Fold this sequence. Notes:
The chain is of the alpha+beta class. Helix content is 18%, strand content 32%. It has three domains: 10-52; 60-163, Immunoglobulins (Immunoglobulin-like); 170-265, Immunoglobulin-like (Sandwich), CATH 2.60.40.10. The strands form five sheets. A six-stranded mixed beta sheet has the order 2-11-10-5-6-7, with no helix packed on it. Strands 13, 15, 16, 19, 20 and 21 form a six-stranded mixed beta sheet that branches. It starts with 13 loop residues before the first helix and ends in a 41-residue tail after the last helix. 18% of the residues are buried.
Amino acid sequence: METRRWQHPPVCSAPILSEVLSVCICNPYMRRCKMAIALLVACFVLYTCLGHIPSSLGVILRTTDKIVWANEFEPIELTCLIESISTNNPRIEWKKIKNGVPSYVYFQNKIAGDLEHRAQLREPANILIFNTTRSDTAEYRCEVAAIDDQRDFDEILISLAVRVKPVVPRCSVPEAVTVGTSTELRCLENEGFPAPQYRWFHNDEELPQDPKTNLKFVNSSYSINPDTGGLKFRRVRKEDAGEYYCQAKNDAGYAQCSPQMMEIYDVDILGIFLKAFGALIVFACLVAAICHSFRRGCFHKKGHNENNYNWPAQSSGVDYGDADEGHFRHKSSFII
């Protein structure tokens, strides 16, 4: 790379300046002294206009932006401007630092790492990324080494953040809700960067975050959380019926889900009465069936005392007397 090397104008060379200054010191009122002062002023103006910095200060870098935002799949240039340098063909390197781990982006005069074939070095030391991706979000460090300069090294750090457009969010809308009840509609998207803000639409009209600010929605009881995508109704009205869809939006763009219908029904008092009456009839029939079964003895079980057991007569034993020997007779005996 051809670098910028500043040369002293002949009129501002060190020997000439020292000569005129010595004359001015020795003869402060001579014409040559006035010429010397004019020459000094001219050299100062020349240095200022040309942006010259003496080479003894060494290599100095700067950048136009230390924090850079880019949209995904669009080009972006990271600037590393060399303010001062005297060395021809200085060593230029770029490093990418992500999660505290550095890796080469430009090394040994070629693009390296995950930017290979997607970037190029532009004069003086800028990096141009053709199509940025979300993986390019990181810190980038430009390093320039100049061996012929008194200050032979300088670096500058640039932070790159890539915006990512949201994808189509996932929306959840209840199909039917009863008047006077509460319900919630949900919306979620987790690809966009920075995190998107959410907006809800009812019949293609955006719902204001605060319904009290719009006469059309002043009687609505909903609340919207733009950070989480929730749309909550404390008490649903008939007017809340219709099509709903959600939109997720950030600085890179927006995406929205397809409209979904939510119907609102009145409270069906007759239906509730008929259902309760039907349940009462079923319960009465069940009780009557159980009572009838008890009367018929379907649930009666015989006890052990109702079983007829015939105990066999004992034929063993010794008869110690007959019927004529008084009232007391041994019917049996036990052998011990």
